[in-house]
Design goal:
This protein is mostly beta strands. Helix content is 8%, strand content 57%. The chain has an 8-stranded antiparallel barrel with strand order 1-3-4-6-7-8-9-10. The chain is globular and about 45 Å long.
Amino acid sequence: LALPCIASAADYAVQPAGSTLGFTGSFQGSGFDGQFNKWTAAIRYDQTKLATSKFDVTVDLSSAKTGDNDRDSALPGPDFFDAAKYPQAHFVTTGFRQQGSQIIADGNLTLRGVTKPVSLNVTFKPQGGGATLDVSGTVNRLDFGVGGGQYKDTSVIAADVKITAHLVLTAK
């Protein structure tokens, strides 16, 4: 009887209230923050059983918002996410590892039809019947063809984009 309880304790549902999936970039030397308003995440996590842990996240790229009308209308377009042709980004873990006191989630990110390995720092804090999960990492937008053509110039738009997520979780 104890085994099913242990297995189910590692599965979590994301609570949309309080959960965010964001990104930070730089345009002409000025930083900007954005977030995706539509995404789903399947989370299975146990710090003591990293081999059975898994993150599977799907993002609706047309939901990207930065608070700047010009940027918000350009991001889903063909020069950036090309959301008409590639409506979703997908990240799925391939494994977890401990590096000192830091847990790293290794996985594959698929964006604009390109799949590349990405590593994210993981901070998991159990609380009550759930937890909070914070992840962060950096991707090179040019690896995925985001901001090609005239936007390939990294002196105008920095190549590195920081990805962050704060998830409020409840045990399933």
